[in-house]
Amino acid sequence: MMDAGIEDNSNHDFSGYDVRVTDAAQNGDTFVYVIKSQQISSDMEYRFEREFEDFEWLHHCLLTQEGVTGLHGIIFPPLPAKPGTSLSNSEAKTKKKIESLAMVDDWQMYCRALEEYLHLVTAHPVLVKNPAVHSFLKHREPPIKTKVKKGIFNKLTQAVEELRKEHHKDIDDFFQNERDSNLTLTAFTKAAAEKFLEIVLTEQKIAIACGHFSTALHLGIGQDDDPADYAFAKMCLKLSEVLDTVKKNFEKVAENDLNTLGFNLELHSRFQDAEKEMLFRRTCKLVDVETANKNLGQAKPHKKAAMEDIKKAADKEFDEISGMAKVEIQRYHRERVRAFQKALIELELAATCFCCSSTGWLSLNSHV
Amino acid sequence: MATEREPPPLGDAEQTDFRELEDGEDLFISTASTLESSPTSPEPASLPAEDICANSNGPQPAEISLDDDLEDLFAEATEEVSLDSPEREPILSDEPSPAITPVTPTALVTPRVEPKTIFVPAMFERSKEELEEEANGDSFDMEIVVSDPEKVGDGMNAYMAYKVTTKTSLTIFNENEFSVKRRFSDFLGLHSKLATKYMHIGYIVPPAPEKSIVGMTKVKVGKEDSSSTEFVEKRRAALERYLERTVKHPTLLHNPDVMQFLESSELPRAVSTQALSGAGILRMVNKAAEAVNKMTIKMNESDAWFEEKQQQFENLDQQLRKLHTSVESLVCHRKELSVNTAAFAKSAAMLGNSEDHTALSRALSQLAEVEEKIDQLHQEQAYADFYLFAELLSDYVRLLTAVKGVFDQRMKTWQKWQDAQAMLQKKREAESKLQFANKPDKLQQAKDEIREWEGKVQQGERDFEQISKTIRKEVGRFEKERVRDFKAVIIKYLESLVQTQQQLIKYWEAFLPEAKAIA
Fold first, then answer.
1. Crossing angle of helices B440-516/B10-37, nearest 10°?
2. Residues A216, B355: C-beta atoms closer than 8 Å
3. If we measure between CA atoms, which residue out of A311, A273, A20, A7 comes closest to residue A153?
4. Gene3D superfamilies, alphabetically (chain B) (predicted)?
5. Does B343 sit within 8 Å of A340, measured CB to CB?
6. What is the pLDDT of residue B98?
7. Would you call B24 an interface residue with chain A, using a CB distance cutoff of 8 Å?
8. A355 to chain B: which residues are within 8 Å by CB?
9. B340: nearest CA in chain A?
10. Of the candidates B28, B360, B512, which has its C-beta nearest A367's C-beta?
């Protein structure tokens, strides 16, 4: 996603940030994340620690910010799932697989996911203005949190009524198309992310198996006096060396896959969900508008004025949301494509690099 | 036996080895570059040939003297190897190369094994390529191919028939190229005959591939899935290896049963090889009895060599089994990776199709294609090589059983000899008793019996010495073969690794422009 540094905001208070989540440490029961942030405009560097709850609080603040036009039209950057959570709904298994990307005993990946979240937030022209962002990124002490209420923004609960609203026909072709394509794209991105993760896991397994094979080859290499045994032992050692290289290669490949396309696919399947949520909010608003219109039509004369007001308010909100949504959608797609490209190029470059280096090594070292 | 080749002095042999060392390095890099230019021809056939042929150019003089005293020959050979081995990369370069003697049928017709002939068959192995290298084109080669598995019949009586094609220029056969149809039980029958004939005199008879009731039932029932095709392919390859090993052994090659197996179109069906037949059950009972006997024989080992070797083989057996387990798990994961890559390729293709942005869509479809090709690559090359390893290891585990069997036979022979001696002693005692009892007719009988048993004792001793000699030879052969076989597989594997990597590079490089063209 876009670098946090590049910003077109003229307001110097909300200039871009350079944020890094450098480490994760265990503090009793919880994990803390070490964050380094620096505002581009100044030289001040801040270092502080945050827990996952602080991130959740930040997210909540973003979602409930007051006074922002068309807030509900924003595609909110998705927060990575809490580490160690086990989801209980039916999507749990799929989601778990994808989220286990973050939990593949690899805190680096998770830190990177959090870092990406902060990048996305600070890169967003509207969200970065939220004072909660400031307090998150500049103050040593974590912000004071109140109990976070889980609204419909947090998880896409599939209540029957909501399901009905989700399929509500749109009045605008652009949005209808977007909703349709979002549906398919979400499913496919999730599937691709999952399958890719399987590849990574298998690659890791192969690396381990190579290691075992390599170790097994060292067995029984003792007596050198028998010429056949000696020859055999030498071959085994050579093969063992080769296998070690193969193992390292697989490890690197797995890591690279995870860091490039794996990360990208995982992030975007969550982002697709975020877009879906936004579209849903808008659809809900659309339903409200249509309901208000209907009520106005059916209202008794003494209630007409009140209904008129409700309708006007609903219309206004809907227009604001739609306006913001349109901008967001275009921005989202632009960024998505760019990120994909970056990931694919990185994947390719690293893959080629590994292949070249291992070919070189093998060619030089292969004669038995 | 005349040698048609004057062995070069040792100095030359060294030079050859030196060249071979450099060649080894260059060979690979040159292979790498040739592979780059011709990606579609993954034929690394030249590589192992050159490697090993270089060896054959440097036969050690000791070998060629064709001493009739086998022991000395062997001792010299061993010395040669250990002297040079630390400096040389592959032990094989120092290995006493086989005597380059033309095989004359008359010399080999005798069932008694002549010492010299043992070393000849090593040539069979890389026969085709070596042939090209040899200056005077001494032609004995033998190539056996097992192919075209065909299901014959239906239901539970169905069986697989394999085509066995032999290409040879050996004069012991009627033609140069001939093929026959054989079924699995025919192979088992052949092995059974050879084992009965040769194992008790100390020859290591290569074991036949294993029976598999589950596998065969699937085939019989007509299950046309990948596991049954895999099973048939595995079996076909195993049968081929079995025949190759058998004919590499000079004595076995000239055995009439073997020749008949390869040549004659009709073969009497070997019924006694069926698992649940009367003969089969008898076999099992015998095996059990043998095992018990083995435990009760306490041999006075006069020759430490045998004890050492037995221990060594015990260790080797364990090592090989462990390796086999590791390789099997690797094969399993490779298969998994292949499956997963294919699944992802499909996913990526679907993602590409649903993507509105055209360039990204194209790139994703391209990615899908790359992944698919990679999947094919994984399947064909790397997987096959681990599979090669696994099969080789299991072959050798079974061969070691045959080796152990031969050692056991020696013990039995010794036991027989001892028993004969004990019997002779008894007869002698009986005779002296009779002498005092003065019964002339019984005395004569006793004397006859003594003579008879003296003969048996002598025969027993001869047998024991003969089997000991044979075993030493056989073990030597086995050791060389083992090193050769493993080296060949390892080389193949390494080559394919290089190839795989190069192919991967090609695929990924082709993908880069698509990725760059996205935005």
1. 40
2. no
3. A273
4. Arfaptin homology (AH) domain/BAR domain (1.20.1270.60), Phox-like domain (3.30.1520.10)
5. no
6. 36
7. yes
8. 501-502, 504-505, 508
9. A199
10. B28
Could you report the per-residue pLDDT of B107-121, keeping only the tens digit for each? 333 334 333 333 333
Provide φ and ψ at B65, rounded to 5°: -65, -15
Which residues 6+ apart lie within 8 Å of A91 measured at CB?
A: none
Residue A90, Ramachandran bin (φ over 0: left; ψ between -120 and 50: alpha; else beta): alpha
**Which residues touch A69 (CB under 8 Å, ≥6 apart)?**
A320, A324
Distances (CA, A) of B251 to A116, B115, B200, B213, B259: 73, 11, 14, 32, 11
B265 touches chain A (CB under 8 A): no
Reported confidence tier of residue B274, pLDDT bands at 50, 70, 90:
low
HEC states along chain A?
CCCCCCCCCCCHHHCCEEEEEEEEEEECCEEEEEEEEEECCCCCEEEEEEEHHHHHHHHHHHHCCCCCCCHHHCCCCCCCCCCCCCCCCCCHHHHHHHHHHHHCCCHHHHHHHHHHHHHHHHHCCCHHHCHHHHHHHHCCCCCCCCCCCCCCCCCCCCCHHHHHHHCCCCCCHHHHHHHHHHHHHHHHHHHHHHHHHHHHHHHHHHHHHHHHHHHHHCCCCCCCCCHHHHHHHHHHHHHHHHHHHHHHHHHHHHHHHHHHHHHHHHHHHHHHHHHHHHHHHHHHHHHHHHHHHHHHHHCCHHHHHHHHHHHHHHHHHHHHHHHHHHHHHHHHHHHHHHHHHHHHHHHHHHHHHHHHHHHHHHHHHCCC
What local confidence, expressed as pLDDT, does residue A364 receive? 74
CA B157 to chain CA centroid, Å, is 31
Whether the CB-CB separation of A136 and A143 falls below 8 Å is answered with yes
CB contact, 8 Å: B30 with chain A? no
B131 touching chain A per CB within 8 A: no
CB A142 within 8 A of CB A54: yes
Chain A nearest C-alpha distance from B233 (Å): 25
pLDDT at A23: 78
pLDDT over 70, % of chain B: 66
SS (H, E, C) B450-467: HHHHHHHHHHHHHHHHHH
Q: Does the CB of A32 have a partner CB in chain B at under 8 Å? A: no
Chain B residue with minimum CA distance to A181 = B354
Give the integer Cα–Cα distance in Å for A195 and A202. 11
| A348, A349, A353: best to mutate for the B interface, most B CBs within 10 A | A348
Walk across the sheet containing A17-27 and list its strands: A17-27, A30-39, A45-51
Whether the Cβ atoms of residue B355 and residue B364 lie closer than 8 Å to each other? yes
Task: List Cβ neighbours of A256 (8 Å cut-off, separation of 6 or more).
Answer: A346, A347, A350, A351, A354
Q: Are A207 and B330 in contact (CB under 8 A)?
A: no
Handedness of CA A292, A296, A300, A304 (dihedral sign): positive
The residue assigned the tokens 């990369």 is: B89
Region B509-513: mean pLDDT is: 84
Band of the pLDDT at B382, cuts 50, 70, 90?
low
Backbone angles phi, psi at B327, to 5 degrees: -65, -40
Cα pseudo-dihedral A223, A227, A228, A230, rounded to 10: 50
Query: What confidence score (pLDDT) does residue B282 get?
Result: 67
When mean pLDDT is compared across A203-207, B275-279, B360-364, B439-443, the lowest value belongs to: B275-279
Name the least confident of B160-164, B256-260, B496-500: B496-500
Q: How far apart are the first and last CA of chain B?
A: 78
Q: Which of B25, B336, B498 is closest, CB to CB, to A202?
A: B336
Question: What sign for the dihedral angle of Cα B5, B8, B14, B15?
Answer: negative
